[in-house]
Design goal:
single chain, 93 residues, mainly alpha
Length: 93
Amino acid sequence: MNNATSITNNIWQTFTFAAFGLAACMMAGGIFFLEASFSAKGFYAMAAIMLVYTSVAMTKTLRDNEETKALHNRIESARTEKLLMDTKDSDLI
């Protein structure tokens, strides 16, 4: 990995963490200052936590599916290459 890509990734990662922290603080402040009963605030807080969890889980699942497809494609490519090399070798004989 070159240095420019590393710097860009570090900046993006910092921005992402800062944006998440800000959003979480805004959600917590909004729920805390909401003029509603304690049970309603609890419901909103649980819904917010569940939303964050499912977003992370969905992102991980999608990434894992893409990595699995890429691995499967590499395996199929290697098998095809081996088959072609075997065919090429048998044609020479």
